[in-house]
Fold this protein.
Amino acid sequence: AGELARDIRHYLAGDPIEAKRDSFVYFVRKRMRHYRPQLVIGTLFLMLIVGASITVATLLHRAALDRERAVAAEANGQYLDAFLKDILDMLKPGKAKGREVAVARLLADVDSQLAKHPPPQLETRALLHHQIGSVYRQIGRYQKAEDNLREALALRRQIYPAAHANLADSMHELATAYWWNGRYDDAQQLFQEALDMRRMLFGEEAPSAVTSLMFLAACRRSLGDYAGATALYEQVLEMRRKRFGDESMPVASARNNLAKCYLERGDYAAAKLLLDQVLATILKLHPDDDPDVANGLDTIAAFLMEQGKLAEARTRLEDAREMRRRFLGEEHPSFALSLYGLARLCRAEGDLTEADRLCKQGLDLQRQSLREGHPDMADSLCLLGRIGIASGALVDAEGNLREALAIRSAAMPAHWRTAEAEGLLVECLVRQGRLDDAERRLLQSHKVISEQCVPGGKSVREAVQRLVDLYQAWGKPDKAEDYRSLLSAAR
């Protein structure tokens, strides 16, 4: 009776009874009924753990796939970058010898297809514009280069909100196109931005940062800031000497750039020290395929002409012309630099006919290949003005000098070369007997040139001589004598 009563109580409580053998299923079912609330909570908790585990595993799997895709995309991007560089490298000057026009047409076709069918990936599109723009710049199609490189930079500013190597590369390459296209203010701002970013990413003495620093110095020289340009060029020279050693073409190029600053200001002694080292490096290394060699030979020849060593200057200029013909072709705007240098030499030798022919040939090439108003054209126009004054072709000289002055006033208003063009134009007018406002204009020209150039330099002496000639033509011998004494002291 007692066991029965106990089984009844167990049954009513949901526990196993003792009146028969317990099966496992029976035992478990009874225990589940007894601990139902706890079991429900435990089951829910277990389901939560399992669900969370599945979710985390899924997310980790997706993250792994994303990483794999990112790595694959980066690898594809690197492959595409290398592929484009290899293909477009074949189109660059020196490797497309004699085919510069065909290369330009091919690039135009690629450019057109890119505009019609742009890749969906922004970086791929930016990379294409960047590489095409770079080749355009190297074959001397500077406006086309600007258009592509501006698009590449705009795309990369979208892609990279913070500092990035690709963004800095696009800034530098577009700034380089601006500089070659004679847009010195625009180039200076963008070179500074690229320099700051490259220094932040890679350090002050990283090769890319030094290159941006060198071009920033070139902008300052082109704008007439010789003190600022000299300071930067000296930094570039020191960093390149540390990296490459004293006898190397990168160091020779840095010395040549610094020598240009001194030579343009009329500091011939400082220029000579540097140019002697440049020439020694060129003669030792014989780098015939380096376009910087032609630039160095031009600078050396300009110095030799100032020293009256015309035969030696001709040798250097003809070597530079042959290098440019071989490496760039006669269609490249840089070939006009050789024609300009040889025209200056012929004028110094007294052969005005040949000087006129060469200078006009160079100017025609510049008009075909450069944008309207490019500063390089002003150099040719000023030289034609000088030739016209010397040969008595004053009307033609006046037209050329007016165009030169307009170009320089727009591109480099504060530069002494603009004041030089003003002085040459007034000199031409004085020789025609047109003296109105000549004194004021020549005095202003002399002031600007004297402030930026070394006393006793050729440009200062020419500015003083124009004032002497004016006062002589004006019938004011006393004033002419005052300036003639300055001229004697300068010599």
